[in-house]
Known about the structure:
Helix content: under 10%
Shape: globular
Strand content: over 45%
Radius of gyration: 19 Å
Number of strands: 29
Amino acid sequence: MTDPRDPSRRDFLAASAISLIGLTRGSESPALRETVHMDGDLLYVGTYTEGTRSDGIYLVRIDRRSGHLRRVGSVDAGANPSFLALHPNGRVLYAVNELEKYKGRATGVVSAFAIEGVAGALTRLNEQPSQGGAPCYVSVDRSGRVVLVANCVGGSIALLPIQPNGALSPAAQVVQHTGKGPNAERQEAPHAHCIVPDPSNRFVLAADLGADRVFVYRLDLDGKSLRHVEGGDAVMRSGAGPRHIAFHPTLPLVFIPNELDSTVATLRFDAERGKLSPLDVRSTLPRGFTGTNYPADIHIAPSGRALYVSNRGHNSIAVFSVAESTGALALDQAVSTEGDWPRNFTLDPSGRWLLVANQRSDSVVVFRRDPDNGRLTPTRQRIAIPSPVCLRFLAPAAKNA
């Protein structure tokens, strides 16, 4: 997500001071509007709908052999179903409806959808207020008992319990961040941008762009609460603007793309105490580039040997090699995304392809990925989707769960 003062997002949010009136109680079971074919891995695409031609959440299938993409359906999921998360059991999809106001209140919404069979059709379960404006990130704890949400406007995070059928209960806790940074336009207040559980599911990390801080919380699933870990936070470089979070699969490291200074930070994470310690900072841009740029998403390969960051402005994916023993980063590539304003991206379940959502050019583009060194090669595979934001694959194991 981009801060509300970023023109790419301000235009959407200005038109979003409406409720989800279109999702009336009499029509809460939207079905896929096109015939669904069963071959290929399932990909859900979250989008912005305000001021665009988007239908909501799109369902796409990818051919693992060729990387070919085929749109097979779409669902009216309300206004701006931008960011998505899957339940660990693969049977429920959650989406933030990125609004500043909902039914006259200063809050956005989190919606829950049941995933029907191998076709992947979505049926609305319910929605709950996110208890903060412009929710921009949603995740599910590793046990599948709670949903975690980051609200950009106002800078808060929320925990919503999950009911047995996957529907959401009202927020059990809302935590208000504090702090600000030197960028008067973007850091005048806290702006929570990401919230994820750690691999042990004992802690939760929340990156706040406005506060220049990655907050650490202890996750209490029985009490449905988050408790701030005193002394655990990472204080980032002044004006950096931390945005998203990626955990190394084997080393005690966390990687953070910084939106405001075009860097990626490496932090050490003490999983016993829940403490972050900054280690290193590297640029996400090739030498010589002087234009405007805002890093967005970050992912690490399952092998831990390659790290990827999307650059909006430079319109590229930065490919870093990751040292096997230390986790040290080295920029190997900055590959054009063949589109404008790459938001989120993802690796497919086979690890052979990397897909990028180019928000401003209405496209999802496929790159071939070398499994040995992680480097990317352009392909001719792409698909037109209006204002794509978030890409989420339904894992093969989940489809059969």
